[in-house]
Design a protein that fits this description.
The structure is a homodimer. Chain A is an alpha/beta fold. The first copy, chain A, has 3 domains: 4-47, Orthogonal Bundle (434 Repressor (Amino-terminal Domain)); 56-157 and 293-321, Rossmann fold, CATH 3.40.50.2300; 159-291, 3-Layer(aba) Sandwich (Rossmann fold). The first copy, chain A, has 12 helices and 12 strands. In chain A, the strands form 3 sheets. Chain A has a 6-stranded parallel beta sheet with strand order 2-1-3-4-5-11, sandwiched between helices. Chain A is elongated. Chain A binds chain B through residues 46-51, 53-54, 57, 59, 61, 68-70, 72, 75-76, 78-79, 82-83, 91-96, 109-110, 112-115, 222, 248, 251-252, 255, 258, 277-278, 281-283, and chain B through 46-51, 53-54, 57, 59, 61, 68-70, 72, 75-76, 78-79, 82-83, 91-96, 109-110, 112-115, 222, 248, 251-252, 255, 258, 277-278, 281-283. The structure holds a DNA duplex.
Chain lengths: 338, 338
Amino acid sequence: MVTIEQVARQAGVSVATVSRTLNNSPAVRPATARQVRQAVETLGYVPNQSARNLRRNESQVILALAPNFSNPYYSRILTGIGDRAWELEYSVLVCNTLGHANSERRFLKMMESHQADGAILLGCHWDYSWLARFAQRSHIVQCCEYVPDLDCPSVAIDNYAATREMVAYLRQLGHSRIAMIGADNQYISTRLRRQAYLDVMAQEALEVPENWYRLADADYSFASGQEAARALLAAVPRPTAIFCVSDILALSVISAAQELGLEVPGDLTVTGFDDVDYTTMVHPYLTTVAQPCHEMGRRSVDLLLDGIQNEQAALSACAFLPHRLMKRESAAPPKNTI
Amino acid sequence: MVTIEQVARQAGVSVATVSRTLNNSPAVRPATARQVRQAVETLGYVPNQSARNLRRNESQVILALAPNFSNPYYSRILTGIGDRAWELEYSVLVCNTLGHANSERRFLKMMESHQADGAILLGCHWDYSWLARFAQRSHIVQCCEYVPDLDCPSVAIDNYAATREMVAYLRQLGHSRIAMIGADNQYISTRLRRQAYLDVMAQEALEVPENWYRLADADYSFASGQEAARALLAAVPRPTAIFCVSDILALSVISAAQELGLEVPGDLTVTGFDDVDYTTMVHPYLTTVAQPCHEMGRRSVDLLLDGIQNEQAALSACAFLPHRLMKRESAAPPKNTI
DNA sequence: TTGTATGCGTTATCAT
DNA sequence: ATGATAACGCATACAA
């Protein structure tokens, strides 16, 4: 292994000068710098990051905690995070938390051992009060989901507004029997979407029978969505539209409906959320809400590094990014507006 | 920040004893160890990994380079890598290479700067001769894809055998007009599948018209698959079965077929590769080859750490993991066996 | 079994 | 503009 000392000897200067050159200090004569770079080149010197990290007390690494890698929604955000980090010369430690809080805590502790300078959390449950402890001494940014009233920046779309738009759109198509499939998790997004749905229904004076709200499991799995859908489609009277909190769930509803001989959107309107790739792979193409995933990832990195680099950065800058209602094939006016 | 020295003072011992205790040295009296742990507890001491890494000349980090995060196939392997690394107390730096060799090289250089102890490469092109240079001085394991004749362990299924099985199965169903959709990339898997297909066709003395081989783009994108499928379905005579090198491509073929009013598998048999989640989300469920992705990820980690920890570990242990032919709905006997 | 002391490769302070 | 040198926090060789 070649060290800074050998480079110094080769270039005929001191280690200090080599260090300064490598860190682009303006206080080094161009001619000297050239000699140093020459020596670096010939020796094939690569600075030891561990040593630099120890000395500078930083790691140039950020954590990205995701509940899983299988949901393309997270994949796209992680891609955005990676892209931006690459540009800013940071490395991203992508961690799979499986949605377990203790797993998240173990990863977050990497900041205390100086293995990471900050963290982006993708799947915070809204009741993670323990997060406050970490947020106080470590640099954290919440993405997609967040804990309300926490002194910690966050990036997300306005889930409440987006859902209102979607339900209003269904209403506008002529639907009055609108059901909903949520998920059995503690995400703030799930809560906000549920509330927005209820508010529009109340405002429109539409009935919301108890059994028109079904829960898929925490990860929005296809199988759990099918189950929820079957229960929903057995209800009397049957809803004419089903608002789902995820695209996978919407696909599972369509699948369940087809098994019952129902056509989408002819007999049933179905809508999703997120606009992942496969919303346009199979007909009917899915009507859904598009989230700027890639941009959300990038923005999270910016917010995080702002906090790391600026002493007095905003403690809790909440960035709401714009969503988009994607009107496609799976939503249409109901056949019989009884 | 609390250091090992403060812990030593608090426990009334030397830093050496604290260090030994923390590293579970048997040479420390249990009673002393208890005192030390007590001090660690009360002070809330967390070892500084940067310092430890510098001293031990390691990082406890491994790289995982993937061409993208959006393909669920890679996601599952990455999950396996993360799981196994977690068990062995290593951190995984997941890197998105976008399939660019220079991006891969930049990430691999992190090993030279001691930011990582080894790397798992998921998307090596078979002509990456430059990889030999890295493989010589760094610890590398190739997963899924690999460069032939490279002194570097690899983990994969037997793509040649798996493809032979699939094509033989189609033959057995009664198909003789079997076409193929490959991909415009330099993966060894793509080559092996192509060769296996050709070998079976030759062996069965079946005709293989030039225009029965179409290429999707490097990432197996849905749109490129549709395009390839449309071209293929316009051929005269039309194939009765299409073997695709990826599940997404198979879905795109089904979509293109349906647009032409063709039913799958009634009018056309379609098969995929990988067995990702959505092969059973929409009917017809896909006949495909299942790969043990999760296990492949885990195995890669084991192989890598073996190389890192054992001086004389096998230089090029090639592990072939078992695949499985998943017979489902998208393949059936041809209607008219002309 | 425990303590002392040295060095890992850098960066940064203080001289010059 | 450059050099000598002291940290950074930890692990370990050697001494006791």
